[in-house]
Specification:
32% of the residues lie in helices and 22% in strands. With 397 residues, the chain is an alpha/beta fold. The protein has two domains: 294 residues, Metallo-dependent phosphatases (Purple Acid Phosphatase, chain A, domain 2), CATH 3.60.21; 67 residues, no CATH class. The strands form six sheets. A six-stranded mixed sheet has the order 6-7-9-12-14-13. A four-stranded mixed sheet has the order 2-1-15-16, covered by helices on one side. Strands 3-5 form a two-stranded parallel ribbon. It is globular, with a radius of gyration of 21 Å. The mean pLDDT is 94.
Length: 397
């Protein structure tokens, strides 16, 4: 019997609770009046819209491929709030996995963040199949407890709409290189782990569909298209995987990459700017991609008020934890950008203005004669928007 299911997905959300570009322009309850992208209130509204549209056709899963934390001031207070995973629960996520930046505050910080969210209520489980917490190092204690409680697990089975879905999660080889905060956490080989998980899910759990949340990334092949990278190599090496929900490289794929003539690899970009929608049919054990598209999380989407209210509560804690000791608050206007000041890793000339601004700020703050800025540590652009006003939130990002 032919069945259809839908996967709504994101990756590399990076604690972008408020739409960037700039934050003072973000109006999730007023439509068509700004050019900001993302924001969790809007994303929640978009997920609800698409779930309602697709539920009539078949089961819907909502999944994330890691790096859900770090990148804005909300990420800096994640040990105190666990805000990322609390909001993901409110938005209806079924599961996520770890990205390299989720370890930025060390295993102890990561454990505290997940623990705070778990104590506050239901949170989506983290499927982390090749992340190893073994050992007696004290910094691993919270993560070990969370694994024992099933909040972090090697695989997950979801039965919905008459289909058994088996999920597992991987941190890819390239992403492991950038997991500088892992500490005593180690990572087993992604390919070998994937083979093990497919075997367990197929033979022991008897699932119909195997889905990998892979924080591995995509690369351009010789043809100039995104046809290589850890996510693609994973699908090639482990044909038992039916779907790869990818992340890490911030690639906004407009079309699914089909590996081995059967396995779709997809990715949405970054910071909740898009919601991916993959529609698949299952017929006699054979899968076929019916459609794939990215839905922009833009100002045509009405925000979810419950999520917006939770974000407003979190803002107070962020101000207390991150900014109050320095005399600032998260929404405080701080500067005016007379023009867009872009950040790009591919156009050095365009990035020079931002690099000079950041480096001169370091020199001013430290009274140094010479300053250096690493391009990879500048995470966002300044966007002028309607007024040019840049808040503390924008500058932190």
């Amino acid at each position: 019997m032919k069945k259809t299911f839908t996967i709504l997905h994101t990756n590399d959300m990076h604690s972008a609770f408020i739409g960037l570009g700039p934050a003072s322009d973000y109006t999730p309850f007023e439509l068509n009046d700004d050019k900001t992208r993302g924001g969790y209130a809007r994303l929640a509204g978009l997920i609800a819209q698409r779930k309602e549209a697709r539920n009539a056709v078949g089961p819907v899963l909502v999944l994330d491929a890691g790096d859900y934390s770090m990148g804005t001031a909300f990420g800096a207070a994640t040990r105190e709030t666990g805000g990322e995973r609390q909001l993901m629960s409110g938005m209806g996520y079924d599961a996520t996995t770890f990205g390299n930046h989720d370890f930025d505050l060390g295993p102890e910080g990561l454990g505290k963040s997940i623990g705070v969210a778990s104590k506050a209520g239901r949170v989506p489980p983290v499927v982390a199949s090749n992340t190893v917490f073994a050992g007696t190092d004290a910094t691993l204690a919270d993560l070990q407890c969370l694994a024992n409680d099933g909040v972090i697990r090697r695989h997950l089975v979801i039965e919905r709409g008459g289909i058994r879905f088996g999920l597992f999660g991987l941190l890819g080889k390239e992403a492991q290189f950038y997991t500088t905060g892992a500490g005593a956490v180690t990572f087993s080989d992604a390919i070998e782990t994937a083979k093990e998980m497919v075997r367990v899910l197929r033979e022991t759990e008897k699932v119909d569909v195997v889905i990998c949340l892979s924080h591995g990334g995509l690369e351009k092949g010789k043809d100039g298209r995104f046809s290589d990278g850890d996510d693609v190599r994973l699908a090639k090496a482990v044909p038992g995987i039916d779907v790869v929900i990818g992340g890490h490289s911030h690639t906004a794929l407009q079309k699914a990459i089909i590996v081995n003539d059967r396995t779709p690899v997809v990715q949405t970009g970054k910071e909740g700017e898009n919601l991916g929608e993959l529609v698949v049919t299952l017929d006699g054990g054979k899968l076929k991609v019916e459609s794939y598209r990215l839905h922009p999380t833009d100002d045509t989407i009405a925000g979810d008020r419950a999520i917006a209210d939770e974000i407003d509560k979190l803002k107070k804690t962020v101000t207390e934890v991150v900014f109050a000791s320095r005399g600032y608050s998260i929404d405080q206007p701080l500067a005016v950008a007379p023009r867009d000041i872009p950040n790009t890793f591919t156009d050095i000339i365009a990035s020079t203005l931002l690099a000079n601004l950041v480096t001169d700020a370091f020199r001013s703050a430290t009274k140094a004669d010479i300053g250096f800025t690493a391009n990879g540590l500048m995470r966002a652009s300044f966007t002028r928007g309607k007024s040019g006003v840049q808040t503390v939130y924008d500058v932190f990002a």
